[in-house]
Amino acid sequence: MGNQPIFTNDTIVFGLLMLSLGFIFYTSSIKKGFWHKFYSIVPGLFMAYMVPALFTTLGLIAPDWETTSETGEIIEHSSNLYFMSSRYLLPAALVLMTLSIDIKAVFNLGWKALAMFFTGTIGIIIGGPIAIMLISMVSPETVGGAGPDAVWRGLSTLAGSWIGGGANQTAMLEIYGYNQKLYGGMVFVDIVIANIWMAIILIGVGKSKIIDKWLKADTSAIDELKEKVSTYAKKVERIPTLTDYMIIIAIAFGTVSFAHLASGYLSTFFTDFVNGLENQTTKNVFTFLSSSFFWMISLSTIIAIALSFTKAKNYEGAGASKIGSVFIYILVASIGMKMDLRLIFDNIGLVAIGAVWMTIHALLLILVAKLIKAPFFYLAIGSQANVGGAASAPIVAAAFHPSLATVGVLLAVFGYAVGTIAAIGCTILMQMVAVSP
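Above: the chain's sequence. Below: its structure in C-alpha cell form.
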C-alpha cells in the first residue's frame, strides 16, 4: 500500500491505459525514423507493460493505496482493473485465440516444450536454497529469523507462486505458518521479480530469431503451427459485419460466463473434497483444485478447444484472434500498473534473494535449451507457465503468435498440478540451508 495517486477513479485510469496502448500501436506502425528504430529494439508488448509501470512509479496511478479518514482511521483502496482483466478479458482472449487452433499440431510440438517446463520447475526448486546460501555469505541477517518470522517460511510462498500460482502460494502460507504481518514483503518480492523477469522475456521475444540461431534450435514445428493457423485465417478471411462482431463477443463472453458459473460450483465441491482428505500431504498437493481461477481458465480453454472442431472456427476469418489480442494487451497494461519501480530499493535484501533465485532459474533454462536445442519460445513459456501461471503464460505465448496462447495455458495447468508438492520440496531444501551452521 502506498500514497494516494493522482488518479483514483478506475474509469480515468482505464482511459489512461487505453491512450498509452493507442500511442504505442500508432508509433509502432510508423515505418521510418526514430520510432521505427526504437521498436526494432524494444517490442511493443514490452512497452504496453512498461508505460503503465512508469505511470505508477510517477504516482499518476496505483494498484492500491491508503487514505486517512477524519477520525484517523487508515482506509485501504484498490483498483479493480487487474481483477477485471484477469477474470473477464483473459478467459475471453483464450477463447478467441483458441477457436482456430489445430490441436493436433499443438501436440506435435513435441517433448521439448514439456522438458523446458520441468526445467523451469527444477530451476525454482534449487534456486531458492542456492539463493539463501549466496545471500547469507554477504548478509546473514537477511535470511535469518526464527519461528513464524523465519525468512525461509516466507520464501516458501514464493516457491508456491513461482511454480504454480496464487492458490499454491496461499497453500504454502498455511502449511508453513509464516507471520502474516510480514507476508506483504514476500508478495512485493513476488510482484517485482516476476514482473522484471517477464519484461526481460518480452524483450527476448523481439529477438527470438537471433536467440534461436544461437541455440541452434529447430523451430519447424512452431512455424508449421503458425503457418497452419495463418493459412486457415486467410482462407476464411472476410470483411466482418456487425453480426460477426456480436457473435464473436457472444461466443467469448458466453463461454466466460459459463466458466465462471461452473468454476464456482467446482471450486466449492473440491474445497469440501480436499478438506475431507485425512492425509495432510495429499491435501496440500490437491489444494489448487479449490481455486475458482484454476477452474475458470481450464474450463474456458476446454470449451474453446471443443469449439475449434465446430463452425465457430470460421470466425477467425472475421478477426476473432485480433479481438482476443486486444484483450491480452489490456491485461498486460493492467499487470504493468502493479509495478512501482521505486519500491525495488525498499527491501533490497529480499529483492536480492529473489533476483538471485530467478537468475538461477533463467540460467538453468538457458543451459538446457542450449543442450537440447530448444527454441526460445519453449524457454519463454516453460518459464512463464511456472513463474507467471495462467495469467502470464498465454500473454508470452501470444507475443510469438496468437495461435500459441493455448500452449501457454496447457503448460500453466501443469504448474497448478505440481506447484504445491514441488514448492514443499523447495522449502525443505531452504530450511536445511537456513538452519545449517
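The mean pLDDT is 82.
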